Structures are given as structure tokens and as C-alpha cells.
TrEMBL record:
GO terms for molecular function: ATP binding; carbamoyl-phosphate synthase (glutamine-hydrolyzing) activity; glutaminase activity. The active site is at C257 (nucleophile), H343, E345. Gene3D superfamilies: 3.40.50.880, Carbamoyl-phosphate synthase small subunit, N-terminal domain. L-glutamine binds at S51, G229, G231, L258, Q261, N299, G301, F302. Residues 1-180 are annotated as: CPSase. This is Carbamoyl phosphate synthase small chain. GO terms for biological process: 'de novo' pyrimidine nucleobase biosynthetic process; 'de novo' UMP biosynthetic process; glutamine metabolic process; L-arginine biosynthetic process. The keyword ATP-binding applies. InterPro entries: Anth_synth/Amidotransfase, CarbamoylP_synth_ssu, CarbamoylP_synth_ssu_N, CarbP_synth_ssu_N_sf, Class_I_gatase-like, CPSase_GATase1, GATASE. Belongs to the CarA family. It comes from Pedobacter yulinensis.
Amino acid sequence: MTNYTKLPAVLLLADGTVFHGKAAGKIGTTTGEICFNTGMTGYQEIFTDPSYFGQIMVTTNSHIGNYGIHKEEIESGSIKIAGLVCKNYNILYSRKEATESIQDYFQNDNLVAISDIDTRALVRHIRDKGAMNAIISSEITDLETLKSMLAEVPSMEGLELSSQVSTKEAYYYGSPEASLKVAVLDLGIKKNILRNFDDRDIYAKVFPARTTFAEMEEFAPNGYFISNGPGDPGAMPYAVDTFKEILAADKPAFGICLGHQLLAEANGIGTMKMFNGHRGLNHPVKNVIKDHCEVTSQNHGFGVIPDEVRASDKVEITHVNLNDQSIEGIRVKGKPAFSVQYHPESSPGPHDSRYLFDDFVDLMKGKLSW
């Protein structure tokens, strides 16, 4: 196990609030937009979710690292969060299947973290003041220096990040003998989405973020999937244009999270940066088409503008968040295209929404329409 010394560390928020704690992970300095996740488990999946790229994660569960790191549970090839803030940082772990400690994992992936923080007080502060930029340092303690560094960090609003986390080369997932083929536009896809496709006899070809519709059509897919990912959907005209072409060709399409926001943009509906966003494993959502509720896994800091969705003659609402009435799902009238704001692949999280993958299969097979 890598040596671990609890050196002093500092967390500074953009509004000037300071928290003092202990160094964890790599000794260094990191910046990003600070946010919190309410999940009580699944820290490894959260760390490797590309949708968190550029963000400092505050975990609300009091113990992080206690069940170690298991390589089979990663959602991408590396840690994607910009930094971690936690209360109790557990280097010793209890799970037999784990292959390394969280400290080894963070040091190997160069992640800077801070522990021994009153995360309840921090989360309450962020909840009331909203998401904002922050800086963690275990090598610099001078607050004026940290303030100067933090002032140079750009706002998440207006940032295009998907092309930074997307695959650089197209690749395949699943069996070439599968009954269906899906073209996946990778804007920051999670591996469990691809596993769900493979489980449903779908052969996927995963394309880089800036791939054109014409290039994906060469794969002759039965449908298109637009993935989750980080950044501002309003800064992604290239992906909006691609979605417009998919719709114009009347191809079956399914979008998750960022893909949901881009489907809205492709239909003239604006998106917005949320005050805090939704991040956790316990968000109640009502399917207004089937009249039932599901508990969902969510991770997004942007959303579609509800009034514009309701005023649109191009889409209809399929899902609504029961906490704040935000729009969690839409489908395009007269087109085989739909999307949801949450994660039906739910890794980590509940499996209430896995039926959406089955709906996509039925849509591609011509068994579902609206």
C-alpha cells in the first residue's frame, strides 16, 4: 500500500468560504465546479463517470474507500472527477474482490483530494448558495495565492467538454451477430450503457463526439443513441446539428442526460444551467405516459427550460421530477425519438428505469410508436 501522510489541505470556494482538512490522494492542487452527490454507495462509479469531468465531487456518505477499488466497476478508462472532498477517507478496505486501496487508486490516477471536512456543513452551504468553482490544495496554503488561481477558472456555463472525454477512435461493443445495430455518439458514455445494449442483443459502434450523421450512417444502424456527458449543451452546435439530421431522416433515436438536452435543443427548446443540479441515486420521477413513479439515478447540472418544453408543438413531456417538477423526459411528436434526463443504466443506483432500453429496442423493431 502506498504511504499516506495526512498533510494539511485547504478547500476554498469562489465565494470566499474556506474549509481546512487533510490531504488525500495525490499531493497537489486542483480546480473545478464543486457539486455534491447524495448517493450512499457507488463511489467508484461516480469517480469514473465522464459526466463529472471538470467537477470537484463532495460525497455525502461519511465513509469513502471502505470497500476498496474493483476494476470491474469503473464506468470509463480513468477517474474523471477533478477532485474529491470527503469526511472519512478509508485506506483499509474490507471487500475480498477489491484489488487496491482508494489511496493507491488516486495516486496512480493523479487525483487530488481533501478529507476530514464537515461535509454536512459544506453541502448545506452549496445547497443554499448554488454550484460554484472551488480549489483544493495540499501544497499551497496561502489563501491569497489560491484566490488568484481560482479567479482564472472558467465557469461551467458555456464550456464544451464532451470532445475532451469522448473516444478518439470509433470502436465496437457486443456481438457482430446481434439482431440489432446501434450507432452511439459518445459524448462521455458510461460503460454500463453499452452493457445494457449488449444484454439486449445489440451490436454497438461507438463514435467520437464530432462524428457526422453521414459517417455514422455508413454503419447502417437500426437506431442512434446520444450519450450522457459533461459541459454545457448550449455550447455544442455540432451535436445539435447531428441530432437534427437524425430526426430529419426519421431514424429511431434515444438520448440520455446530455443527449436529452441536445434533443430539446434540436427541437428549438433552450437549456439552462441549474442552481445545483441533480446528483444522486434517489430522485423520484413520474412517467406521465404510464402513470407510475420510478426512483432514478441522476447526474446533471444543466436542464431543459420547462416553459419552453410546455410551449413546444414538437415534443411532449413523458417524465417529470417529483421534487422540483423539472422535465425529466420528452419524445418527439411523429418521430421515433425520445430522451430522459436521468440514468436508466443506473450504475450505481436503482434499476427502476431499465425498461427504457427495452422501449428503444421495440422502437427499432417497429413495435412501438406514438
